Amino acid sequence: MKPVFTYTKGMTAVDTSYCPGCTHGIAHRLIAETLEEMGKLGDAIGVAPIGCAVQAHKFMNVEMCESAHGRAPAVASGIKRVHPDKLVFTYQGDGDLASIGMGEIVHAAARGEKICTFFINNCIYGMTSGQMAPTTLIGQKTTTSQEGRTREQAGMPIKMSELLSNLDCAVYIERVALNSPANIRAAKKAVRRAFEVQEKKLGFAFVELLSTCPTNWGVTPQDAMKWLGDKMIPYYPLGVFRNPEEVRA
Amino acid sequence: MKPVFTYTKGMTAVDTSYCPGCTHGIAHRLIAETLEEMGKLGDAIGVAPIGCAVQAHKFMNVEMCESAHGRAPAVASGIKRVHPDKLVFTYQGDGDLASIGMGEIVHAAARGEKICTFFINNCIYGMTSGQMAPTTLIGQKTTTSQEGRTREQAGMPIKMSELLSNLDCAVYIERVALNSPANIRAAKKAVRRAFEVQEKKLGFAFVELLSTCPTNWGVTPQDAMKWLGDKMIPYYPLGVFRNPEEVRA
Amino acid sequence: MSTTKLFFAGSGGQGILLMGQMITYAAMLEDKAATFLPSYGPEMRGGTANCTVIVSDAPVGCPLIYEADAVVVMNLPSLIKFEPMVKPGGLLLINTAIVNQPAKRSDIRVLEIPVNDIAMDLGNPKVGNMVMLGALVRATNVVSEDAIRQVMHKTFTGEKAKLNDANMQAFAYYKQYA
Amino acid sequence: MSTTKLFFAGSGGQGILLMGQMITYAAMLEDKAATFLPSYGPEMRGGTANCTVIVSDAPVGCPLIYEADAVVVMNLPSLIKFEPMVKPGGLLLINTAIVNQPAKRSDIRVLEIPVNDIAMDLGNPKVGNMVMLGALVRATNVVSEDAIRQVMHKTFTGEKAKLNDANMQAFAYYKQYA
Amino acid sequence: MAKFQVRFNSDKCKGCELCRAFCPKGIIVMSTAINSKGYSPASISDQEACVGCQSCALVCPDGAIEIYKEETSE
Amino acid sequence: MAKFQVRFNSDKCKGCELCRAFCPKGIIVMSTAINSKGYSPASISDQEACVGCQSCALVCPDGAIEIYKEETSE
Amino acid sequence: MTEKVLMKGNEAFAEAAIRGGARFYFGYPITPQSEIPEYLSRELPRRGGTFLQAESELGAVNMAYGAAAAGGDVFLSSSSPGIALMQEGMSFLCSSEVPVVILNVSRGGPGIGGIQPGQADYFQATRGGGNGDYKLIVFAPASVQEAIDLIYEAVPLANAWQNPVFILADGILGQMMEPVRLPEPRPFLEEKDIRAKKPWALTGYGGDDSGRRIVKSLRMQPDELEAHVEKLFRKYERAQKELCRYESVGIEDADIVFVAFGTVSRIARESIDLLAAQGIKAGLIRPISLWPFPYAAFDALGKKTKLVISAELSMGQLIEDVKLGVNGRYPVALIHRTGGMLPTSVEVADKARQLYQDIIKG
Amino acid sequence: MTEKVLMKGNEAFAEAAIRGGARFYFGYPITPQSEIPEYLSRELPRRGGTFLQAESELGAVNMAYGAAAAGGDVFLSSSSPGIALMQEGMSFLCSSEVPVVILNVSRGGPGIGGIQPGQADYFQATRGGGNGDYKLIVFAPASVQEAIDLIYEAVPLANAWQNPVFILADGILGQMMEPVRLPEPRPFLEEKDIRAKKPWALTGYGGDDSGRRIVKSLRMQPDELEAHVEKLFRKYERAQKELCRYESVGIEDADIVFVAFGTVSRIARESIDLLAAQGIKAGLIRPISLWPFPYAAFDALGKKTKLVISAELSMGQLIEDVKLGVNGRYPVALIHRTGGMLPTSVEVADKARQLYQDIIKG
Ligand SMILES: Cc1ncc(C[n+]2csc(CCOP(=O)(O)OP(=O)(O)O)c2C)c(N)n1
Ligand SMILES: Cc1ncc(C[n+]2csc(CCOP(=O)(O)OP(=O)(O)O)c2C)c(N)n1
Ligand code: SF4
Ligand code: SF4
Ligand code: SF4
Ligand code: SF4
Ligand code: SF4
Ligand code: SF4
Ligand SMILES: [Mg+2]
Ligand SMILES: [Mg+2]
To answer: Can you give the pTM of this predicted structure?
Structure first.
């Protein structure tokens, strides 16, 4: 029998610490597979800040660095300066990237850092057990918006892909979703394109991966997938926001 | 004789500490005149973070608070919670707002804080003697971009008005310039509109005032005005980026 | 001065923390000093839950314990991990409906209670922890049965009040069973 | 051990800091210890500039001074503010081309030099500070004229080298003037 | 012999049921047994019916699924 | 009598020359004297020629200019 | 007096802050204190207050700065790394004399460390992790009840001293439940009363700009800045006289005196009993105010004492204050765990006995 | 040895960092140290290094973290409020054992304070303003030359100790010019040599993932975290033995011993001469390493000494280490200015004489 889908060398043998059905595992695999396919596992350096994925270094078979909450883009900027030819990436949650780390991500994008950012948007703070994030949808109940988030109380959820699209040097920006086999296939293409943009030193590449947090959403993994499709995608439309000519083909 | 243009009660008798020809003085006056005309000098609270205008409280006849570098929007958010019916505003430089304070301004805008931000964009760090700001134009020489800023080294200058226009609750955003009598008249209208948006509690209001720093640009005040028109406006186009129905009339 | 140190361990959905809280609450109603300390943080996500309860006539010192008068284990990993924590001569309560391995120590008293099976028999699979609570209270006398009854009525109010009968029935079950 | 403490004050464009740096540099060339300390920060924006220079045979202690052997004032506000800083018996050099007010103290030596006028006479309005420097060096002997000459040649090189003649002429002027 | 073979690593499986939910053929079932991590792992009920669409493997967050195809040269 | 009167507060003036630069009538001149702050203040050379456009006052960063108009009722 | 209730530490702290008068809360989630913002996000709006989730701890401390500068009574909480991010803010609060109540439910460090209890933020709290000369008023509760009482008191205390009051708790206190009595709620200070009650607070001057108020921190002229710092330190000197608090247990004739605060003091009390059973008389000084530190407590130590032991959850921070208090009069030793580990009372007793025996043997 | 040059302190510091081997600089403008980023923005690219202006001090310290974790030799500078913002970062650097050279050209505080020289960040530097148990290696130069030498040495030292090395200077040193000699430049560490030279640094593992490297700070298991902290403190203990540095002047038979660092030590030296003229013999202990603090220096104090005086630009921070060093053996007093003010040597001498006379009179 010929393997058509098998384990990637990009993942270690260690079981992830994620809850059952959490899409962090899928996102990890996509990055790992892509780097493996590109032959770049040994030439990549990742940064995972605090968040459920802070221990990503245990699961992804690349060299990695933890970072303080929100600061991964600054850390990655530093790493890239030392190793301009390595593939440097950050793997950040929405609390991390869109809340405390807003300054760092906007500036890394504005400077056109030649790094990739994978933005795991699950509309909630996972690691700290379910508080409202800047991405939490209107009406969504969290432990700090127990009646559901309102516009009046906390403003509208921030669309990071759209926001960063204003920055010239953020040359590749795409939003994908991890809620179905088809979308996951598309997500992997986006991950690939992001790394290619970096390889070609075109500028900053950003992939927003709409994700689930069944535990803190309080639903089954399957219902989480459905909620992602029904609620998140309408507010966070999928698509390519910026795409440099060189990788468009 | 009937006064047609006279000193506003919104300014104190204290001479400003600004360099000759610096447009900070004009921006101060516009805010002061507007509050006076609205009868709100005693009902306004301003926040000036570190930057050349940190001592604005000496010159503007309103109650004011200094703030740490970049944090004025957070400070103003706190003030507004305590005094929801006062006119609360921040007065921030481009180093302050677009660099260290990026997180705070984006989030204040995203939350739709009912405050006004007056953003004095002079493409440079004035107070610290002329280093590159995130708004410094390509080719502009500063003490930390002595050969002129390049895209490769520091990315493209950030257009704050455009960036914030992505945020739903940032309901009023306009860019004006302080480089000619006509533009100054227009700027005053924008200041007025911003305060009206706040009075009506419609959301966050933002006015970007293109300004000069003759001292650190190393030119005469007159040439600075010209440079603003010739170089800044083409990159930072004037105009209304967001405007709620209620004040459009 | 009498002090009782209890430890509860099991997996997330088994009502571990509730057992501990009910004992603590009951102790308070009896005007005793008591502390309740859950394990916390993301490791709970792995699905384990445990807590410590200390009940005393005098103010409680450190709420953390390293040796317990009684340990309740509701699943196998908990048995393996926490059996050593029972003090010599102390009590170990095992949920044998799920734990299919006996205790190793001989210097302690062991009570084997198939709480899920009992709960199923009682027609309500959710009351397993109450069966265990009944066993514990009767075996240790750490608080009175009456205090637990009061706690139940204060804990399950409104909508949930209708659970009280089933809960008390489960709580009382151990008497028959023993 | 001989230590000379100098203070220079004036407004932004008057070459105040350059005077101080040239003395310090000259002292270094003579293998003396020396420190130069400018005032710094945004208050310079107001248009004032001042600096302290200490030249000594032994290592210099604190580079800040409260009393000077000689004070150079290039404008009126500086005279008012810094005249008291001259130590009794010390020297005050006033640019009388701009300062139209006499010194108040009688316990010090005062040299009045209309440096801008002299510079104008010399055909180069920019060399006023060199006229003052010449006066200072000759009046205090803090460094040798030759050292200053060397400094000039090291400071004004390339494009600026052509200024050296004018500068040296200005520097030497005070001899005639006195 | 089935055209595709879907192999589950039941020690890695967390019983999230996503593979089951996304299998277009409805041939993935959850076990009643419990694995070493305390979860009921997924397995395939009807290997023959598998169309090799990889949906199960793509959605599996825990890398518990491998898919093999009959070698045409065999 | 001039229709407009432009008054300069020369103690506030920092001699930036912006008013001079923006006066459409070219009637603002810089003084040769120096004010208490050390600047050469601006003043008006030909009051009659002033059209009251307020350009000078609008661009003055230091609030040194007031403009008065002849009362029509006078 | 209200009736006894059983509450989780963090929720009790939050409730105590409300009852103490804190109408405004700004915070950012972090374990092990997230129950505080969670509780307050529900309770404050319901009770006429304001909960605002900040974008970060920097945001939170600066929102707190603004609200308190505007006369609001503000509560702020976080845990170690979050508190580290607030250090510039702390320095500003003290410099501008803006009163805020701040709670650190501290955890193990350094770096992101872990989430189990720690006391290794002692230096940061008492010496100031921000820039310049300033002091926080710092209290360390040893029980949920004491934490409630201190937080309740902190709101008026911060106002009276126009200085941040900092409560240094730990993850155990935050997570545990103990029966407690909650104090009667104080009414919130209403907006209209701020101008009169807080003569320094920003409210807008209304019709009369002669009373225009400014909240500031910059003082470019060094003499002016020095005068300001000296003014602050006159206040701090007064605080040293008035705010020192500690509890001592049997120290006059003790062979060994433990010094410990927070959870560790509870362990030390148990160790005292264990040592007594072995014929060693141990006593305890429990500082409640960490700044001002109760150095005077050490004056009560007698001739019998052979050893003073600092027991703490850090590699030795409290011990410096112990040494400063002892000033060479007795030997000082350290018993400690760190990184989220706690010593048992047996461990403390054993180590103490060992140290003691080494000393009496010479 | 290179020839003498006259350089502004800040520019000399920047040049010393380059020559010491620091190829990477991340920073954000702040007075009185902005000449450092200005100089390096010009010089580093020209000489094969990298200058990157960060968006903030938080950005800067985290860029430094990344670059140093990746094996680059990194220099970072700021001034007091900027350093306050880096406290979380400092704690991370120490926890992850990432070596960076950090310079604080400190100014008057608290809050934004002023821009004149200060020493009130002493606690922050030596006690750690971030969270948890950690130590920076801290040196305090007293002249531009000494600052050059210390910075030059700091680059290899940080690498050898895998710990941040912190230089605490002040605005005067940064702004003044003194004749100095610059050391010979060391070659920059090249990217290709990092993997071999720094066996912990992230470089990508190439073909062999068995050597996969991780830089981390989180340790959820408290026993693991404790073991890590203890490992760090074994290193710090070694540092205490090996890195203590100070200079002492005539302390053996001194009536008064001054303790002072940085600019103040230069003032104290002048005061010693003034006192000598009045018949009082004064000596000086000048700590060069502030952490580890040279406590042992106080063992050399003799019978004659009546008084130890901490002279500093703060309300009393260094004095705590002085007291810990003296341990009750001598009276300890404070002479200080703050907020950017400096005492004159006459002032220091007068106050010292006064204090001394009070003591000998009893
Ligand atoms: C400075 C600081 N503040 C707060 C925290 C607590 N914290 C840890 S992770 C996290 C957010 C996690 O949410 P997100 O980034 O969305 O990641 P997720 O866990 O959802 O994948 C927070 C607030 C921290 N570790 N450090
Ligand atoms: C935390 C911190 N970092 C840096 C500084 C130094 N600083 C003071 S003002 C300023 C920037 C001023 O530029 P801008 O905000 O554009 O205002 P401008 O002076 O140009 O009006 C900087 C970097 C500071 N005060 N605090
Ligand atoms: S808490 Fe949410 S994001 Fe975190 S591992 Fe669990 S499901 Fe995933
Ligand atoms: S430095 Fe620039 S911005 Fe600042 S006052 Fe002077 S001209 Fe204005
Ligand atoms: S490959 Fe497709 S058909 Fe086969 S088991 Fe998986 S999901 Fe079902
Ligand atoms: S998707 Fe993976 S983890 Fe989930 S049940 Fe299927 S095999 Fe198990
Ligand atoms: S009002 Fe107009 S015309 Fe008159 S002086 Fe001013 S600018 Fe000139
Ligand atoms: S614009 Fe104002 S400050 Fe400038 S020269 Fe004219 S009057 Fe003077
Ligand atoms: Mg998230
Ligand atoms: Mg600016």
So the answer is: 0.97
Question: What is the interface pTM, i.e. ipTM, of the complex?
Answer: 0.97
For chain C, the residues whose C-beta falls within 8 A of a C-beta of chain G are 21, 24-25, 27-28, 33-38, 40-42, 59-64, 66
Measure in Å the smallest separation between the Cα of G47 and chain C Cα atoms.
23
Q: Where are the domains of chain A?
A: 24-247
Of E9, E14, E35, the residue with max ligand 6 atoms within 8 A of its CB, to mutate for a pocket test, comes to E14
Q: Find the domain containing D87 and state its range.
A: 3-176
Task: Determine which residue's CA is closest to atom 2 belonging to ligand 5.
Answer: E53
Domain count, chain C: 1
Ion ligand 10 neighbours (CB, 5 A) are: B 93-94, 122, 126
Say which of A47, A65, A81 has its CB closest to residue H50: A81
Domain ranges for chain E: 2-71
Q: What is the CATH number of the domain that holds D23?
A: 3.40.920.10
A187-246 residues touching G, CB cutoff 8 A: none
Residue-by-residue pLDDT tens, chain G, 362 positions: 678 999 999 999 999 999 999 999 999 999 999 999 999 999 999 999 999 999 999 999 999 999 999 999 999 999 999 999 999 999 999 999 999 999 999 999 999 999 999 999 999 999 999 999 999 999 999 999 999 999 999 999 999 999 999 999 999 999 999 999 999 999 999 999 999 999 999 999 999 999 999 999 999 999 999 999 999 999 999 999 999 999 999 999 999 999 999 999 999 999 999 999 999 999 999 999 999 999 999 999 999 999 999 999 999 999 999 999 999 999 999 999 999 999 999 999 999 999 999 999 97
> Which domains does chain G possess?
5-193 (3.40.50.970), 246-361 (3.40.50.920)
The closest residue, in CA terms, to atom 3 on ligand 7 is F50
Class of domain A24-247: alpha beta
Residues within a 6 A CB radius of ligand 6: E 8, 13-19, 41-42, 59-60, 62, 64-65
Of G131, G230, G329, the CB nearest to H84: G131
Nearest-CA residue for atom 1 of ligand 2: H82
Quickly name the fold that domain E2-71 has. Alpha-Beta Plaits (3.30.70)
Task: Determine whether the shortest distance from the Cβ of C42 to ligand 3 is under 6 A.
Answer: no
SS3 labels along chain G? CCCEEEEEHHHHHHHHHHHHCCCEEEECCCCCCCHHHHHHHHHHHHCCCEEEECCCHHHHHHHHHHHHHCCCCEEEEECHHHHHHCHHHHHHHHHHCCCCEEEEEEECCCCCECCCECCCCHHHHHHHCCCCCCCCEEECCCCHHHHHHHHHHHHHHHHHHCCCEEEEEEHHHHHCEEEEECCCCCCCCCHHHHHHHCCCCCCCCCCCHHHCCEECCECCCHHHHHHHHHHHHHHHHHHHHHCCCEEEECCCCCCEEEECCHHHHHHHHHHHHHHHHCCCCEEEEEECEEECCCHHHHHHCCCCCCEEEEEECCCCCHHHHHHHHHCCCCCEEEEECCCCCCCCHHHHHHHHHHHHHHHHHC
Atom 4, ligand 7: residue with shortest CA distance: F50
Would you call E36 an interface residue with chain A, using a CB distance cutoff of 8 Å? no
